[in-house]
Amino acid sequence: MNIQRKYSLPNCTLLLEGLSDVTRAAHFQEMRPELSILVNAECYLSGYNQPLTGGREFFESLVRAVSGYAQEFLSSVPNPQAHNQESELVEFQKIDSNRHRLIIHSESAPEGFESHSNNSKRPPIEIDLNTVQLFDLVEAVDQFFADTQTLPELSLELQPVTRRYGGASQAVIRQVVPAAVGVSSLAVAAIAFNLIPPPQMRPPQPKPDEQTSSTTKNLNPPASAAATPIVAAIPTPTPTPSTKPVVKDLETLLNTVPEITDPSQLRALNRQVYNQVHPAWTKRSGLQQDLIYRLGVAADGAIVGYKAVNKEANQEVGQTPLPNLLYNPANRAPISNEPIAQFRIVFTTNGVLQVSPWRGYAKTPEVVGARITDSNITKGLNQKLYNTVRQSWSGTPTFTRDLKYRVAVNKDGVIADYEPLNQVAFDYFRETPLPKMFNAIYGSNVAAPNDKEPLAHFQVIFKPNGKLEVTPWQGYQ
Fold it and tell me: pLDDT tens across 226-262, in order?
């Protein structure tokens, strides 16, 4: 199984790709699969277009050098682990109190990075970081070591330095700590001053609902270290004390359960997803770019996972209601082998929500459920529906395009379901009497109760000039 893990900070992102030993991950539906074989490691730093890439040796050297240099910087005590040119691929050099040089010894330097060496054969890559970038890198490494499902056999041993060296660095700490955005980075500072013992083991394995961000992808191991940046991930929200949704590894889940592809079922689920997300999306302003996500949805409409499709979506997930809409295992049985539907959801910059099946519709969907087909009955219900809606619709329309709906009624002419068919129908539904009619019967404006009785379906069009059209349903266009 090919796996991808991502540890993100504002100025640094670590992306690890590798394989899992399936014999050690028999219960991967309940927990994230273990990344035990590292194939490729990428380090993205703000201000640089190209990532630093390499394999297992590069990554191990990077984490040793980062941790050693952070300890040295905070304690002002030289740490040879940060400057070992003989046996390490990665080393650090201090330029001044706010500039730090990261040096990677490799055969070639990727485009976009400057090489200061005169050695034409194996010029090292040299990157200058400020202190904030440095400590974001330290925090990303800390996130990796806190993730017990990624390279669990890799450990880091830091030795505390003598306390008497701490006094000379208090001013540095006062400058650095506010700049470092990660809480766990402070552990390095504490070790540097012998305030806490050095770590001897990894922390206890977190529960499945407390996992860090991850994603599993079906991909081939990269042919070279210079891999294309992958920004998709399943952002894991911080659970509240009262609600702890389980964030599933969406790719893994989709690879192990059937996929819902029936167009009619997808159409019905599309409505349920929209009805969940639309009223919950309250932060509709301030987006600089559209946020696009891939959703996994169970047959009952529960959102069981999501993955950012573009970089902005990964960074701005807090602007969406998705973290709060993941299903709560306290209210629903855990996902096991249930079929999953996939949807594409877009939070647009103009505040419009878009939901559609991830792969589109294989054919034109049909309305789900039994239908009234007797022509004499449907003719009478057509007129009854027209009269009911016409009497309830008043006022001057503000919309400039036709509002189209599918409206279903039972044998008594009572409205049982309604569905917007175009975007303006979503945007201006409050100018129609449909939500009031529906709410008066069911106490809700969204999806109808699960009623098995046969229904007659009609297309209802509200025109900008105040005219109303009701015609028998001919199917989705």
Answer: 332 222 233 333 444 444 344 345 666 666 778 899 9
What is the value of pTM for the model shown? 0.47
For tokens 């766990």, the residue is 184
Distance CA 137, CA 148 (A): 19
Please report the sign of the dihedral spanned by the C-alpha atoms of residue 44, residue 47, residue 49, residue 52: negative
pLDDT, tens digit, for every residue of 146-196? 888 888 888 765 544 444 444 444 444 444 444 433 334 444 444 333 433
- Give tens-digit pLDDT for 350-385: 998 999 999 888 889 998 889 998 999 999 999 999
On the CB side of 272, CA atoms within 13 Å amount to 22
Cα 99 from Cα 162, distance rounded (Å): 25
C-alpha span between 186 and 192 (Å, rounded): 10
Q: How far apart are CA 435 and CA 433, in angstroms?
A: 6
CA distance 183 to 174: 15
Neighbours of 476 (CB within 10 A): 15
Q: Please, are residues 303 and 222 in contact by the beta-carbon 8 Å criterion?
A: no
**Is the dihedral angle over the CA atoms 105, 107, 111, 114 positive or is it negative?**
positive
Among 260, 473, 267, 456, smallest CA distance to 364 is for: 267
Residue 333, token pair as written in the block: 């049985």
Q: In 3D, which of 440, 379, 444, 461 has the Cα closest to residue 413?
A: 379
Instruction: Quote the CA–CA distance of 418 and 409 in Å, as a whole number.
Output: 9
Burial of 344 (0-12, 13-18, 19+ CB in 10 A): middle
Pairwise CA distance, residues 184 & 194, whole Å: 16
Determine the distance from the C-alpha atom of residue 52 to the mean position of all C-alpha atoms in its chain, rounded to a whole number: 24
